[in-house]
DNA sequence: AACCTCAGCAACCGCCGGATG
DNA sequence: GCATCCGGCGGTTGCTGAGGT
């Protein structure tokens, strides 16, 4: 099977330049077409990989930090060889780079320490029986009224973390709905008794004006409301406060001004300003909450969401 | 200086699923 | 429903360069 020529010819600077320009000019075309237009003797697939792993502006080079290594180890223990998933949580790192890092460094390191790298306890999960990582986070929806306080959460549900959740949202449980964005006070039974667990309502029952204070299950989160409880919200979301906009669903990193200074109140942007790719890490006001992000900050996220990890 | 080893990186390959006609 | 195309993904392996002998 040996080929007389080099089997894996490296990309030259000239090829990179041509591909970069061609891709930049024809961003919407399929890769096979781009490869053809570029006039390179490379397949569309090769061009795509070269772009994704090297030429893309967001690609981060250089050594992995200890934090990145720890994140890889932790996520690998809970998600296995889902390199793309892990890479999503390491801004700028590609799945290929993460895979190489694991296969050629971290795995051997753990083996050398006598650690079973396939069974590393996840600090954010006591059982591994955690909500599946393809769900959006939605307070007040799909709440399990039968969840036992302090019990191990069943998939899709959260236990209350007294320190935080109880503090924040009345000691109730919060579930996850895969098709909804994050939305306080929407689809909540307006007639639920105070102190009870809010009951999700059907579409037909949906509150006409979800921002009408009198009908909110959690009136404290009404339009424009800022969290009043520093201890909790500050704790929960990395020290930043979030405001609410009545015409928008609450969506981490979507419609949020990417240029907002850290610690300031995020500014919703208009439709015309809307970030083209809301999950593009470089454009996120809160890149740590990007799509598919698995929190790495125990102190904060672990605390906030009952010790589990979630995707948004 | 020549050779060897090994870690790190890069590229290819096959499989799979979604979109489209 | 089926075939085809395309992109995404994970596994594998070749290439490179640094360091050791």
Overview of the molecule:
Its main location: nucleus. InterPro entries: Homeodomain-like_sf, Myb_dom, Plant_SW-associated_TFs, SANT/Myb. Residues 3-55, 56-110 form the HTH myb-type domain. One of its GO terms (cellular component) is nucleus. GO terms for molecular function: DNA binding. By secondary structure, the chain is an all-alpha fold. The chain folds into 3 domains: 13-55, Arc Repressor Mutant, subunit A (Orthogonal Bundle), CATH 1.10.10; 66-112, Orthogonal Bundle (Arc Repressor Mutant, subunit A), CATH 1.10.10; 124-312, no CATH class. Helix content is 30%, strand content 0%. It contains 9 helices and no strands. Helix 1 (13-25) packs across helix 2 and helix 1 crosses helix 3 (44-55). The radius of gyration is 23 Å and the shape is elongated. The chain starts with 12 loop residues before the first helix and ends in an 8-residue tail after the last helix. The structure holds a DNA duplex (21 and 21 nucleotides).
């Amino acid at each position: 099977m040996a080929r007389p020529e080099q089997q894996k010819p490296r990309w030259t600077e000239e090829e990179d330049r041509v591909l970069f320009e061609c891709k930049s000019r024809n961003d919407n075309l399929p890769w096979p077409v781009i490869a053809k237009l570029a006039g390179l003797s490379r397949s569309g697939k090769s061009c795509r990989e070269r772009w994704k792993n090297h030429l893309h502006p967001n690609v981060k080079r250089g050594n992995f930090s200890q934090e990145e290594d720890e994140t890889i180890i932790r996520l690998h223990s809970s998600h296995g060889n889902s390199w793309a998933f892990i890479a999503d949580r390491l801004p700028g790192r590609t799945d290929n780079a993460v895979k190489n890092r694991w296969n050629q460094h971290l795995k051997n390191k753990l083996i050398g320490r006598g650690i079973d790298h396939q069974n590393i306890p996840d600090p954010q999960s006591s059982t591994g029986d955690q909500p599946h990582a393809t769900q959006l986070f939605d307070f007040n929806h799909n709440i399990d009224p039968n969840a036992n306080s302090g019990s191990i959460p069943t998939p899709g549900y959260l236990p209350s973390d007294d320190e935080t959740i109880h503090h924040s949202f009345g000691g109730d449980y919060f579930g996850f709905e895969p098709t909804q964005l994050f939305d306080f006070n929407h689809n909540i039974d307006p007639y639920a008794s105070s102190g009870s667990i809010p009951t999700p309502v059907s579409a037909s029952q949906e509150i006409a004006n979800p921002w009408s204070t009198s009908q909110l299950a959690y009136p404290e989160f009404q339009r424009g409301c800022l969290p009043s409880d520093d201890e909790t919200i500050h704790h929960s979301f990395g020290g930043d406060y979030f405001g609410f906009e009545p015409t928008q669903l609450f969506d981490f990193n979507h419609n949020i001004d990417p240029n907002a200074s850290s610690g300031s109140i995020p500014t919703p942007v208009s439709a015309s300003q809307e970030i083209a790719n809301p999950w593009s890490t470089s454009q996120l006001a809160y890149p740590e909450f990007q799509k598919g992000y698995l929190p790495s900050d125990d102190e904060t996220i672990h605390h906030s969401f009952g010790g589990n990890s979630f995707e948004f």
